[in-house]
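Before going further, learn to read the protein records used in this course. A complete example follows; check for yourself that the lines match position by position.
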Amino acid sequence: MHVTCISGKALVAAVTFESLPDEDGLLTLAELAARTGIPEPLLLAIAREGLLVPHRIGEDSGYTADDVAVARAGLTLLEQGIPLSELLALARAHHEATTAVARQAVEMFDAHVRRPLRRSGAPGDDDDEANAQRLVEAFQTLLPATTKLVAHHFTRVLLDCALEHIEKVGTPGELSAVRAGGAR
């Protein structure tokens, strides 16, 4: 049986908690460039590196308001003096590491959540619609928890590394300011 009660857009929104495309649909790369002020050739180069990943819904792919916000956050880093080449190198390293962890997390979800959910259905229950709904509900519970754990851990590790660095190379004034700012 084909899943019909959950539209592709609704499934993506339920699973990822990302913003859905506006009424005009997904944004093209050119529209993303226009909304962010980032030149399209730069966005294209970033996309070719695998660092700008389009949102996929069915056969369509493109960008949403969340991608606009993230692209603007990247601009903020550049505006603060981070060189583009170094930011791209860091982004590539992060992408490779998080992809490996994400694949491991998907395997863990499959083994410990999806397969048991499928087995827990009523005998002879081949209702893909019910299985799909249970899967979405599991994602709705687990994805925000996972995201919170990962974001919290990364923030703490980044702050600890920053403080360690300032303790080694910073001036007494910098160290005092960082400590007063609650960096740890």
